[in-house]
Write a structure and sequence with these properties.
Oligomer: single chain
CATH superfamily of the largest domain: TolB, C-terminal domain
Helix content: 10-25%
Number of helices: 10
Distance between the termini: 82 Å
CATH class of the largest domain: Mainly Beta
Length: about 850
Amino acid sequence: MALTAGTRIGPYEVRSPLGQGGMGVVFRAHDTQLQRDVALKLLPNDFASDPDRLSRFQREAQVLASLNHPNIAQIYGLEGAGESRCIVMELVDGETLAERLIRGALHVDEALRFALDIAEALEAAHEKGIVHRDLKPANIKITPDGRIKVLDFGLAKVRESESARAAASNSPTMMSSPGMIMGTAAYMSPEQAKGRTVDKRSDIFSFGCVLYEMLTGREAFGGEDVADIVSRVLQREPDWSALPPDVSPQIGAVLRRCFEKDVKKRRRDMGDVRIDIEQALKEPAPSGIAQAPARSSRMAWILLVVAGLLIVILSIPTTLHLRERVVEDPEMRVEINTPATPQPLHFALSPDGMRLVFVAAGDGLQRLWLRPLDSVAAQPLMGTEGAEYPFWSADSRSIGFFASAKLKRFDIGGGPPQVLADAPSGRGGAWNSEGTILFAPTNASPLSRVLALGGQPVQVTKLDLPRLGSHRLPQFLPDGRHFMFFAQGNPETQGIYLGSLDGGETKRLTAADTAGAYTEPGVLIFNRQGALVARHLDVAAGLLMGNAVTLANPVSNDLNFNLAGFSVSTAGRVAYRAGALERRQLFWVDRSGKKLGTAGEPDSNTLVVSELSPDGRWLAVARSVQNNTDVWLMDILRGGVRRFTTDAAVDQLPVWSPDGTRIVFYSNRKGIQNLYLKPSSGAGGEESLLESPHPKLPMSWSLDGRFVLYQDAGPTTGWDLWALPMTGDRKPIVVVNGPFEERSGQFSPDGRWVAYQSNEPGQFEIYVQPFPGPGGRWQVSTAGGTDPRWRADGKELFFIAPDLKLMAASVQVSGSVFESGSSTALFQTRIVTGENASLKAQYTVSRDGRFLINMVLSFG
């Protein structure tokens, strides 16, 4: 009987095939009585039609069904329909270990954690007299939550005892007659390969094969065919030089005891192997292995500081400085040169303090760069284009980052980046020694955790709306269970919080504007009014103790993204960028890039541009004065600036009404970035325009005054574009919301089109679509682009290329069809970049075709 979707076997309804197993084809099915999904393994016809074989298997299945262990996939029973017989088993989601190993070796900590799970499963089965006989990566599943499930326990025993062993075929599976499986050659014990009686010690040999492959990414006894493999199993040792250098000698000894070819010399019990591994993990490394530097118990624990200046001109390298202090030695400073970077605050020290990873665009594309601190050169990491918010694995061998609306990992040892989870607008991550990654998938979400191997994310924290709008920028504490994170909200609730993977309430450690970091021995480092300070942290009590010690001043930060320019290693090293004294100024330039004049004076208050008033007289900007970000109005004709908003919260991104009488802006005074409206004259109060549980950023106001275009940070899709009607019930309408980031929307002058940027192709590109729709979508840029702006007559679209050139594309519209010409580079800019600059374009276009560009001047 063929099994197809809809076939019923007893109470089980077949849904879909899952794959081919050693005992037959496996299907997903639904248990209509217990309302659960199960796996059905269809037995081969020669097996199912033989009453003696079936009877023996049924007796064996009764024993197997008695196994009840969290690391063993359970057998529920047998079912039949006509001549077909199926084993009903627990359905285990996730990838097999064999599928995972296609991507290469596991990290040592992951491999040993999985090994312990496998060992416990074998130990439980052996205690009931059940021997697996076919342990291999294909029979081991990794569940989405990171647990191991061993499949097909004992099923090989029934087939093995049926007749004498036959000669090996060219398949890696050994058979006694057609379909009679003895085992898989590459994972067989020598006695099994010889056709002798096997016991639990054979599983121990197979376990060694699996552990070796997890650590090295290669089979212990690989060969061209079965005969070659069996010969290696019987006569050769594995290639011990293939073990990673950080595998301890104790683990090497465990493997050697598993690989003893003489069964009498091999470990006799799986419980002993498990104890061997646990003991190896507890014992300190021998004296030949490098140890972390000793730390002082006083606050002078800082050993190394990497200090950096923000970019002066993006076409020249950024200068970083290295400061090292040992208790007995005087302070020392060394310069480190890095390529230009559009995201100067996106960098991370490795936990061992030996490498620095940072975002840069030295070759025109934004990607990760890696700089060993004992080297003079940094290298780009290919395949990490568009990367943001890098963070390290606990063993300093891999880097997590966000790009193309995904959480990804990059293994320094080799191989392309791997996608781990969706992250439409990721806001930082952390990676503990157990292989768990904690991350913020969007800029308006709680924290989630996912395996470093990938899988289904699980929410860890819970938002307290509207008091706290998002959780972001986590960092694990040494126990790998507790963590710190930043909670964005109003001044009364915002700050650095303490949480746990085990759940429970989170606790605020301190009020803050940016995230903090932890280092031993028990020290919290955070940004306070532009200075980098440290205080002792009592993790158990969740309290900060003692007075703050200043480590560096000034340190750059971005209050809009709650990101401070520093990173901490577990080795007691701190990297930071000094940039609080950066000066910016607005320059008028023509289409060739020639400077025509300036607007306003040089500004050291993190000047961020928004847009010109309709009459061209005023420029609405944001400035951070005395650590408070407000909207300011700059008088273009007479000079000078005046404060427009005065709230203690962050007020940002002003957008003018078409008649110039009103300004819409966002404020987080209620925890979430909501939209507010205020007369541009300053007379009159502020009106709450739009409140919702998601952060919102105003982008553009249609020329007819009917709609305000804004970004909305959805909890699952990241930044999307919506339009708010300014009349009637003011019910927002969707403009574009997909699984990627859609940002920086701009209405065309006639209000019929919306230009925006999306990272759907892997990097940000410029798109145009009709408003309010329906209609198609047209891609304008082809090699990357951000920050679109329209020419006043709508016949040209400008944007910024990845190398910071100002680009122009001609526009033609015929009815509902939009057409753009090829993009042309106008000139190289020195435009302000970075997190808070990325909220909106740092240039604007006047009605006469001039460009007003926000540029970095120098550092004072």
